[in-house]
Amino acid sequence: MVMLAGCGGGSSSGAATPLLPASPLSGVIAIEANSRVDQDTMDQLGLGGATPAVVPQTLPASFVLAGYVSNASGFYPDGSTACQPLEYRADPLDDFLVPMAPGETIVLQSFGTCANAAVLELDVEGALSQTGTDSVGVAKFTLSAGDERDYRVRVRNLGRIPARYVLLKTAGTSQDTAAFYWPDHRFVEGEAIITLAETQLGPVSAMAQANGVGPRRLADRAWLASMAATSKTAIAGRESSATLAWIQQLRQTPGVESAAPNYQVVAHSPVSEPLYNRQWHYGLINGPIAWQLAPGGGSGVNVAVLDSGLFRNSPTSWHPDLQANVAAGYDFVDGDADPEDPGNSVGGNVFHGTHVAGTIASVIDASGSGGVAFGSSLLPVRVLGEGGTGSSADLIEAISWLVNGPSGATPRAGVVNMSLGGLPEIAQLESVIAAGVEKGMIFVAAAGNSATTAKSYPAASPNVLAVSAVDGAGNLATYSNYGSWIDLAAPGGDAGRDANSDGEADLVWSTSATQTSDGYVPDYRGLQGTSMAAPHVAGVLALMKSEKMKSENQQLTYGEVLGLLRQGEMTDYSGSPSVQLGYGVLDAAKAVSAATNGFSGVVLSASPAVLSLSNEGTETQSVMLDAYGSASLDSVSLSSFPEWLAVTEDFSQLPYTLQVTLLRSRLEPDVPARDDIVITYNGTKELRIPVIGQLITDEQARNAGAHFVLLVNTEPDADGFYWAEAQVTTTVENGQYPFRFEADDGEEPRQLNEVVPGDYYLVAGTDIDGDGFICQPGESCAEYPVSGLREVITISAGQSISDVRMTTGFSRPTISAATPDVLPRPDFKGYRLKRERNGSAAYDEGVKVFQ
Questions:
Q1: How confident is the model at residue 115 (pLDDT cuts 50, 70, 90)?
Q2: What Å distances lie between residue 249 and 50, 194, 379, 813, CA to CA?
């Protein structure tokens, strides 16, 4: 460790303590709350470590712990840019004591190493769960019943491949495991979506000349920009990094409010494709009863399907089960009025958009499959091209086209289905969706098929209904995403289950096409995915919209749908929202009944729906209360709240507001408190807002592992690697990491901690698996000044930069409207460490840093 010397002072002998020369760069790295590290990791560059612990490691009530396990010793593969030829040691088991109470959950996520993915086992006192071999790599244990006490938790490696992992337990009910990866959303190289400060074409013309902005207007002030052809030629082989650098320049251009990559959107594709001849999924949602209540099948409602287009049966007709209901759509991939699916969607010509459209609007006859809203009009809008991928620019432009309609006043569709996703939160996309909601449109989107809580947009948008998938028994499908952002669930199928015991795999059957010697012909097939779940919801919404128009001559709005959901009028809602199923599994009969009879009640809703307050996070939170439904509110009052909160209310006019503040003095340190804020209204109705409060005192106990602090060159070499020019190591002292670099003394060999004047990135992190890289998933990382938004730091001769502050942690920044400056890092693998030979920097070893 590099020691820091204090100023002044003396010794017992009276001799003055010598002062160190001024450091060109020094500072302190703080640690994120609740951070802990496995006590036997491989963080010594292959020179030691990984000595198995003798006694279990005791953990606090809330923690995020990084660890390392390996069944054998060996060497990482040489000759690969992902590995350095370093030794790793055996450490097959990590042992912990974790305080748990009923309802609390432990999550284990495996990241493997540079060598490959690894399967780990989570063992909570004999209850076993494996992480799996896919990219998700998650295992969980929830204590459903039992005593509140310390539980023995073990993490084992089931193979020979070393692995990094993160073990976490929080006071909340949901666990977000995706935040440990650097954002890696794919985007179109050489393109950007920009928002201009003015609506006139003048700024566009100026930027077109300076930056290559094309004349393509997406929505309002949103435009699609393209790099100049000369620039594209000059960056051959470095398109991704050059595009991101160009976007950074656009952000500095006068008149540009924002600039973001043109992210790629993908179909939430099915996993398998065997034929399936039973429509169990309609029975699961009570479809036959709903059709009796809505015999018109959604007539008078236009449903837009933003997808891969539709299968053509001939040059003049669509799939025969869809033909009668297809209205004029558009192809935003090819830019014409013919949204035909050429048959190259993800999954091997499954005709993804055709399958989705069939679930919504197939006609009812003796030969076909039948759709939920069989009498509605279907607007095919092609936004997914070859391989089932598309761009966020096309999606934004398509939604804007639907919202504004031919005259700009009336939308082209009342319901929009989006069985696609994988996007970050994009401001321009949120804007056009919100504009549609203002005009009475209702948007539905598939949650995604990654079995993770990671938010996938557009489903996670607050103005979109996010739909998870269930099997034939109404249980969450093995592949379905989940989390607190899910609104409801619907049948998506599960090829590995026969949960309804009908002798067939639980697949959703709908329209498709099959290849023959004469080309593709119309057909039907069974698929699985949240893509199959979302159109069930879109179809039911079409039925509800149609019936509301008939019974009340009024439009069904998104706000009313939320009110019905929260009151249990659309699902099998049990009274408590679930991170897996939201407000429950879709019940078409209940939903259509509510719309047919007219929702005469009123429901009060809170945003946010759950509060989490702590002295290290948010201590004061504003809550907005709004009413959904046609009845009036009366007798609204703040009934009760926990003693460790101060709550003030304003019930003078809608939307009502609450101001909630944590009272530290009334909390027991490090013991999460849980309770409800209760609002009563209309006599006997109650709104309960769950609150979690914490007084965290773990600052001194935080430890994220030994840290390597690097000064990295800001320009890559010809191979695209960034070189580290200086490196120091530091260990935790009272919950933080002090670091200090030294000036180059001009003598050879140059020491690792010596730095010459220049421009650098300052980064730090752990190497818990000893593979020679820091800042990989599962390792702690810090970047100056903020992770994900690193800036150049300049070291000048004779000058000293001190008191630099950074924060390290295992989480990674996410791309969202709240963090618009964060950009993706395609294929980011971490920063490569230097190795020391005989006390000198080993420049002859080809030491480089990945970007």
A1: low
A2: 45, 12, 39, 21
Among 162-166, 446-450, 590-594, 677-681, the range scoring the smallest mean pLDDT is: 590-594
Residue 835 pLDDT: 64
Contact 512, 531 (CB under 8 A): no
pLDDT band with cut points at 50, 70 and 90 for residue 174: very low
Find the angle CA(505)-CA(509)-CA(514) to the nearest 5 degrees. 105
Q: How many CA atoms lie within 13 A of 483 on its CB side?
A: 19
Every domain of the chain with CATH number 2.60.40.10 lies at 602-694
Q: How far is CA 779 from the centre of its chain?
A: 19
Contacting residues for 844 by C-beta, under 8 A, at least 6 apart: none
Give the CATH architecture of domain 187-266.
2-Layer Sandwich (3.30)
Q: CATH assignment of 277-586, given 3.40.50.200, 3.40.190.10, 3.90.1640.10, 3.40.50.2000?
A: 3.40.50.200
824 preceded by a cis bond (ω within 30 of 0): no
Q: Using alpha carbons only, what angle is made at residue 423 by residues 215 and 207, rounded to the nearest 5 degrees?
A: 25
Give the bridge partners for 759, in sequence order. 794
> Which CATH architecture is the domain 34-179 placed in?
Sandwich (2.60)
Encoded amino acid at 748, one letter? E
Instruction: Name the helix (H) or strand (E) containing 761.
Output: strand 758-765
- Tell me the DSSP string of 738-755: EEEEEE--SPSSPPTTEE
pLDDT, position 501 = 56
User: What is the C-alpha to C-alpha distance for residues 737 and 807, in angstroms, rounded to an integer?
Assistant: 10
The two counts, helices (H) then strands (E), for the chain are 11, 50
DSSP output for 481-529: --STT--EEEE--BTT--TT-SSS-B-EEEEEEEEETTEEEEEEEEE-S
* Cα Rg of the chain (Å, integer): 29
Q: What confidence tier does 46 reach under pLDDT thresholds 50, 70, 90?
A: very low
Q: How many residues does the chain have?
A: 851
What sign for the dihedral angle of Cα 73, 77, 81, 86?
Answer: positive
CATH among 3.30.70.260, 3.90.1150.10, 2.60.40.10, 3.30.70.120 for 602-694 = 2.60.40.10
Residue numbers annotated as active site: 307, 352, 531
* Cα(123)–Cα(490) distance, integer angstroms: 32
For the chain, the average pLDDT equals 82
Cβ proximity of 322 and 365 under 8 Å: no
Torsion of CA 333, 334, 340, 341, to 10 degrees: -50
Give the other-Cβ count within 10 Å of 602's Cβ. Answer: 18
Residue span(s) of the chain under CATH 3.30.70 come to 187-266
DSSP secondary structure, 87-151, as one string? EE--B-EEEEEEEE-TT-EEEEEEEE-SS----EEEEETTEEEE--SSSS-EEEEE--SS-SEEE
In this prediction, residues 393-419 reach a mean pLDDT of: 94
Residue 698 in 3-state DSSP?
A: coil
Residues forming CATH 3.40.50.200 domain(s) in the chain:
277-586
Considering the chain, tell me which residue range(s) the CATH 2.60.120 domain(s) occupy. Answer: 34-179
